[in-house]
Design a protein that fits this description.
Layout lengths: L1 E2 L14 E9 L1 H16 L3 E9 L1 H9 L3 E4 L17 E9 L2 E9 L14 E4 L2 H17 L6
Parallel strand pairs: 2-3, 3-4
Antiparallel strand pairs: 1-5, 2-5, 5-6, 6-7
Length: 152
């Protein structure tokens, strides 16, 4: 339902739909499928950025190859070869054109974008509210600006 052009009013960036994703586990067959979908959004003109902490190599490569700006929030603070700080957030926000209508949307919950998440006790909820969008956007921008780096 996402349309990358035709954002109107105060939504999007210019006429482009804006998508931001913060995802911990993004891997497996499901992760590759969703990476392909997000890459398509970028190719169609959406303004897409992604923060990940456990994104698989295919996922990160596919996104970057299709113009998605990708950063990681994973750090090995004591240089022992083990990540000891990361984001565990799981959400996607959208400002722009969804199903031909301008709006602000948040999808958030406990579900990673991985195969195993389909078999667990997980939940994702949709919040179609401007205020919720702006709070999540502030969080995304803060993490992006202050606690991420380009990796692999």
């Amino acid at each position: 339902k996402v349309r990358c052009r035709g954002a109107s009013g105060a939504t999007g960036v210019g006429d482009r739909t804006l998508v931001r994703i913060s995802m911990y586990g993004w891997n497996g067959v499901r992760g590759r499928y969703l990476a392909d979908k997000v890459a398509q959004l970028s190719k169609r003109g959406c303004d897409v950025r992604v923060i990940h902490s456990d994104g698989g190599g295919y996922v990160v490569g596919k996104l970057r190859a299709n113009g998605v700006r990708v950063r990681t929030a994973s750090y090995d603070r004591n240089d022992n070869g083990t990540v000891d700080m990361y984001t565990h957030e799981k959400y996607m926000i959208l400002s722009g054109n969804l199903g031909g209508r301008a709006g602000w949307h948040v999808w958030t919950g406990s579900q990673n974008w991985s195969d195993i998440a389909l078999n667990g006790d997980e939940v994702t909820m949709h919040i179609p509210r401007r205020g919720a969008y702006y709070e999540y956007r502030k969080n995304f921008d803060f993490i992006w600006d202050n606690h991420t780096h380009r990796a692999g």
